[in-house]
Records
---
Amino acid sequence: MPAVKDYVTKNKPTWCPGCGNFGMWEALKRALSELEMEFHDYSIVWGIGCHGNGADFTKTAGFHALHGRTLPVATALSLTRPDLKVIVEMGDGDGYGLGMGHFVHSVRRNIDLTCIAHNNQIYGLTVGQASPTTEHLMKTVSTPDGVLEEPVNPLGLALAQGATFVARGFAGDIPHLTELYKEAIQHEGFALVDVFQPCVTFNKLNTFTWFRERVYKLDETDHDPSDHTAAFNLSMTTFHELTCAPDECRIPVGVFYRDTETPTYNERAVATDAPGYKRAEEVRDISKLLDSLG
Amino acid sequence: MAEQKTVATTGNSVVAEAFRQCAPDVVAAYPITPQTTIVEEFAKIVAQGRVHTEYVTVESEHSAMSACIGAAAAGARVMTATASQGLALMWEELYIASGMRLPIIMANTNRALSAPINIHCDHSDVMGARDSGWIILFAETAQEVYDNTIMAVPIGEDPEVLLPVMTCLDGFITTHSIDRVQLMDDDSVTAFVGDYEPQNALLDTDNPVSHGNFAGLGGPYFEFKKTQRLAIDCSKGVIERVGEAFSKLSGRPFGLIETDMMDDAEVAIVVLGSTAGNVRYVAKQMRAEGVKAGLVKIRCFRPFPVEEMVSALSDMKAVGVLDRADSFGAEGGPVFLETRSALYDLESRVPVVNYIYGLGGSDVRLDLIRTVYTDLSDIAAGSASLHGMQYLGAR
């Protein structure tokens, strides 16, 4: 069984000290290790953003895609290599901005992959502008008067579009996040894990402390993850009330919704019964065809 | 002459400042390295109330250009900025901006295109857009960035032109380096750029129009394109006229191309953007060593200044064209192809060779430029033969 240290390359992480990406990286490596994933069992696709630098120091035969374009690449991987566990690592600016169209369509197709969103509510790589999940009214260098729009609600959006596994994690709780990752990777269908990942350099509001004062675990409540309406209501009551006091606004983490009945796109698409690379292995006898041509 | 003050600033800051002075009605933009500080600084200027601009943050460059097109069609003066993948993502909208004849002003901070990922300077981004119908200006220095940005407004908005204008500055080299820049007083710039009087604006509700309608199946598409071609051809004279007026106002000369040490030159390098500075430095050294070296810097790449290039280069014994972008599969880089084509009709053939340099911010060392001049001297002397395109200094 590969150990956590077996999932890294010789390159050292380039993230800022204290970056929430470290917690997510550690949880992912632990999840892969605990699931006994060998190098040939999984593939990771990254987008553009600070999270994407993980492509350089995570061991995989993967792909560093264009800004917002992780999911199309991962879709192709999932459909042509159903034997792989396909994992997408995308950012909020990346996956919920330029990549939003791909996100919605990947969800509704129920592609068999795990979509991990590094949601730091800011553009980190371009040093601190408002992202699609930056809080309403928050001041950033691109919005000196405060953000005018409501933030994207990734969980609500995924649930509305029929996602079959929807969870939220917190980069400051690695053991809990590891368990979420494990379940998401094992889930058959589109599994979203939106992770609050504090950007210690550019997001001075949504800090580790800020989250620690507000998060609570869903599995310690009576929430029923098979109840779609309850999951949707939960997503709607928590995403845009983050500016209130810790005792007023509580942020649930854990599995919001789980549906193991709905078939995946991979199962529905007949062509994927024999993925292209397997068909290519069969040697075909075309001598009759050649004979017919004289 | 305008009142001017000299400041130490960066190319990106200068764009934001020029935008402020030109007072756009709408700026819609999206952050991308190395452009980001332009829109950041402009956002701050808007927030401080120093300009009355509707500043729109969007979720992608495609949306940024779309918002710009909508605003420009409504009759607004519109500006934006981007780079690299951002410009690539705008691609389909670039053609809509020019086809709908909307004089949007865009600063492009030249940066390499993926893959592999790279954030440093080359001209692959703008060269991908060179046939999109935009007027394209290049700057060597932050001063030229300032001048080009201000000139872009009356050029694009000229009723005979009505085309979008892209002003290019080299990523990090020009965008982020501190440079000495003379800024003009606000009143002079305001008077110079004038008020924009849009034609066929959507918000002119007394004269309702539609934009962008279907023009196929025997419709006037072909004729639309012909008028677009006439407009960009006509823009050449307008650019010269605006440049002349700007020179009077600023005291700084402007031409579609800038020639340096070309009066008695025998070998010349053709270059765009910041590398002109390196070439000029080396050309002076070469002259001290007896090589009659010259330099042609293209300031206006679209429309391509054919006559000016011919006039500058027709007597050369050898010309080296430096391209900071490749046109993969073509005989050479875009500037080479244009330059050699411009010289084709001459009675006597001018030898032209091509060097691809500095892709992805790869160092443009002086010794590399020296090898080009040496190479050209050898070709001029007949001791070396013409060669195909070379990647200058690639390992």
Note: DSSP finds 13 helices and 15 strands in chain B.
---
Amino acid sequence: MTDAPVLSNETAAPHGSTPIGRVLRSVARLRRSRVGVVGASILVFWIAVALAAPLLAPFPPNQPLQPMAPPGTHAVGGTGVFWLGTDHLGRDLLSRIIWGARTVLVIAPLATLSAFIVGVSAGLIAGFKLGWLDELLSRVTDLVLAFPALVLYIVIISKFGASALNIVLAVTLASSPAVMRLTRGLVLELRNRAFVSAAQLRGESLWYIMVVEILPNARGPLIVDACLRLGYVTITIGTLGFLGLGLPPPDPDWGGMINETRQFALVFPYMVLFPCLAISSLVLGFNLLADGLRELSLQD
Amino acid sequence: MGEPVPLLELDDVSISYFSRAGEVPAVTGVSLKIFPQEALGLVGESGCGKSTLAMAILRHFGGRGRIVRGTIRFAGRDMAELSPQALRHVRGGAIGVVYQEAMSALNPSLRIGEQLAEVAVFHSGVGWSEARHQAVAMLSRVNVPDPERVMAAYPHQLSGGQQQRIVIAMALLPRPQLLVLDEPTTSLDVTVEAGIVDLIGSLRAGLGTALLFISHNLGLVAQVCERVAVMYSGELIEEGSVRDVFVAPLHPYTRGLIRCIPQPHLDRARMRLRPIQGQVSPPGERPFGCVFGPRCEHFTSGLCNRGEIALVADESAARHRVRCVRWREISEEIPQPMAPIPRERTEDIALVVTDLDKFYSVESAGFWRRLVGAGRQEIKANQKLRFRIRRGQTLAIVGESGCGKSTFAKVLMGLEPATAGEIRLGEIDLAKLPVWRRPPEVLRALQMVFQNPDETLNPSFTVGTQIARAVRRLGVERGRVQISARVRELLGLTKLPMAFARHRPSQLSGGQKQRVGIARAFAGSPALVVADEPVSALDVSVQAAITELLLEIQRERGTTLVIISHDLGFVRYIADRVVVMYLGQVMETGSVEELFAPPYHPYTEALFSAAPVTDPLMRRNRVVLSGEPPSMLDLPIGCPFHQRCPRKLGSICEIEPPPMRRASEGHRIHCHIPLEELRGIAPVFRAGPT
């Protein structure tokens, strides 16, 4: 007397029980999207480069060696080859790019994470509570979004000084409104689902409903947005470096490298080209991964 | 004279969809004929391939489908050989199509007049002014009031029923030989549906168009068509005249389907639902041999799963074919009568609703009106509701969409506060007690089953986790071992396998999800459960199983049920008492026996007569309401029903709210018409000439 017995994918179940199993399964699923695989490979490449920087970099990144050597020049004294050439101060570009990966791959995720913590919390509250709280949060959001982001960065960084922490704070302030809006929209759609009513009817707290009932079901679009946003933040960090608002010299920072050498760009284009390529490839990696994830989420 | 030439002939048609996963067969080996002026109903549950087949007739697939075998001939021509130009003239020209969603069939940015005239210009080659002329004539033919005004309107300015009439007018403008209707009334209210169904019937008679009427609703097909084809799992399993198929079905699936639809004209004491076990196998995993085999009570291994089963003709009836190897032996068998489920007779009161009001205030559109403060309008979703719910009984609240029945459920559950009035549960007044202020024992006592199986469960967690959470919050069990024992008990109660505890909702079918929702609602052994349209989103064969499950749990636990529904057949089967609502007000209350026999409130009579019945021999007094329920924003003064009431007395109905008339102790009718006169109304249903 039951409509139970036939179950289509009985075998698909066992994995999902543990969190590790679930992560493994999502990684395995990503293989189905070619774009996603390419994006993930680029990211894995850069993460590996950043982790192994001391082993990979042929020269110390901040040491002046031989100014303006074109790519492929053999170092005087036979200590090695400047594969990508050196900058105007004689620092090896390859080593600076390798070490610079560390900077961006620490700051970009931190800044994105922080923007998501603020934006998702505000979006959950605004979308679920509605009323004056929503009105207030939404208007503050509008206010920040109405400001040109670049002006915001310049004001904050020039006021509080250039440091990793201030970059993270500035990015959080500028990006969290967009995250808030996205989250709010997702919550507005989810809050009227019957399972949310069911939770209310068993007397669950507001906090439980927002975090346990609603948030997990908004994760798909949020993860995709996080990947895209990592890309934007990477560009932002590059821009800040280029404007001289990035990390203080001499530590290598891709945007800063472009800024320092841009006056030589016409004569020695490689000095600007290679840091640019590094930034683009990393952003491309994030974007392709986001596309791949979106493709997967549309499949099921 | 010889054999007449069929208008449409499908010969061994198979259709597959091609996706990443490979070929998925949707329709296999369907052969069908429709003769000129004939109406053929195509019935089956979701996923059986009926819509795919209709699209195939027009050679219109969403990119991934393809006819892999067989031919489709229309008016003697093979559709596969038509040039793209010829095909465009057949589509919407010789074959008209009406889809389920009228709103998406109409272009939202064009006026109705332009869209209609365009059809005539393209297919009939007339000039624009002549085309507009024809369009107006066709609009009045489909009973659209004030056609000139409608011609100038945009689709969103018209109601759902009007839109569907316009789509029908559009399909009929080029005078098609065949009209394909794909679930044309599924998204409409019953009284509006009845109007459309009547319209289709009268147009057919007038225009001589053949019909292919696709529906999951057997009652509608019985009403509209003279022949019916039943599909299951992509195969045509039975075909014959409506009378033969519905009165003496041959295939076990058809027999099962008819036995599991509750009928508005039959009391529970006279029929018992027999749910079909199991569920439809997904395409791509269809069984070898008989596709219905795994669910069939007559399945015989070695006979039913030996090879492909042919469609054989029953010589005793005209053009009656069935795809079953055992049909002859089975048709002798008479199913064991099942004991009817007795009704609970009790005077114990579980809940008292007194003069309950729920008003919403909305800001009207328009910047200026908001600025001058004239913008706030009140929607009276519930007005002066007054009834009692008896312990252990089932109370059904019936009405069309927007009548306020779901609003009442929300107020009762504390998801919305009442504006005025009382809902008394023992000593506590629930009317203004929001859910977050309700004490745990009240939360435990009142639980809810929701309508949409896809939204009732949280997709992110396993079934077991979700039931366990409900047990932890509402149940008396403490500790892991006790809680998981209780989860198993609840799965058993709802007849789900224990293994489901580890499954996620996406791995379950609609009926299974609904069972989990019921298990969750019963976690704390509630005294009262509200079920908002608990079966309306499910397939017909699954509806019966859920209905029986609710009744069984109720009997076992003595639970009081409040059922909210628009389906009178379901209500008559499940309920003990009924409240009929219209535009936020109670029209009639009474026990099932009292309500389904005269005296009726005129609205109850209309609802009752609009309810589809699968028995083609049943004759009824048809009461078809004009128009649609008015907007809740401008409620009529006096009786809310006076604008559509076929028995309206006169100006008194427009001025004074109707008095409450007591037909018997528990039977109340709110109407100006005196009781004696209401008693004299003939019953809606009477057995037909057999």
Note: The mean pLDDT of chain A is 85.
